Amino acid sequence: MARTPSSDRPDRGRGGERGDRPNRGRGGAEQTPREREESEFVDKLVHINRVAKVVKGGRRFAFAALVVVGDAKGRVGCGSGKAREVPEAIRKATEQAKRNMIKIALREGRTLHHDAFGHFGAGRVILRAAPAGTGIIAGGPMRAVFETMGVQDVVAKCLGTSNPHNMIKATFDALINLASPRHVAAKRGKKVGEIIGRRDGAAAAAAAGA
């Protein structure tokens, strides 16, 4: 006697419906907090240096990458990595940059609070706050730092060396020395309005004298 399939037995064939089975594919998977955080970062490759080592069988090449990473909201970091292949060197530099990120307070979310000076080795940089519409007036590695950090208006000048490593580190030295009006007010025991009013008054006096 032939067995008849039960009516309440689910159809497991290819043509049958899957029912309420969860979608286990990549398209249906949600991003983890770590993946979501990494997707917010913007990275820029600043410089790649190729080094050749002469061995018995010929020349052996290695690559060193310099990368700047930021979230376009005031956080930025730099890192360098070395490897036999370019992608691996960039990956190492990116991971190091994410570990070395710093938070910089921006004025109105677009420029610096005040002028700053930084130096590292033979590299010296000058950073100046700029009015709206100025744009990023900076060259080479310094532009990558401001773009990834989210700065929209700034005037920067590099004095001395043109080595990208020294320029980047001198720029970070200047950024670390920046202080927001809130930080200065808390340090001096005053109100934020007093600090901002004095700064605006000094700027107006300088403009009138010019």
Helix share bin: 25-40%
CATH topology: Ribosomal Protein S5, domain 2
Q: Using the coordinates above, name the CATH class.
A: Alpha Beta
Which CATH architecture?
2-Layer Sandwich
| Share of β-strand residues | 25-35%
- Radius of gyration, in Å, reads 27 Å
Quick overview of this protein structure:
The protein is of the alpha+beta class and 210 residues long. Helix content is 33%, strand content 28%. The protein is built from six helices and eight strands; from the N terminus they run αβββαββββαβααα.
Structure description:
Belongs to the universal ribosomal protein uS5 family. Residues 41-104 form the S5 DRBM domain. It comes from Paramagnetospirillum caucaseum. With 210 residues, the protein is of the alpha+beta class. It has a single domain (40-200), classed as Ribosomal Protein S5, domain 2, CATH 3.30.230.10. Helices cover 33% and strands 28% of the residues. It contains 6 helices and 8 strands; from the N terminus they run αβββαββββαβααα. The chain has helices at residues 33-39, 86-99, 141-149, 164-176, 181-188, 192-209, and strands at 42-55, 58-70, 75-83, 102-103, 116-120, 123-129, 136-137, 154-160. A 4-stranded antiparallel sheet has the order 1-2-3-4. It has a 4-stranded mixed sheet with strand order 5-6-8-7. Strand 7 (136-137), helix 3 (141-149) and strand 8 form a beta-alpha-beta unit. The chain is elongated, with a radius of gyration of 27 Å. The relative contact order is 0.12.
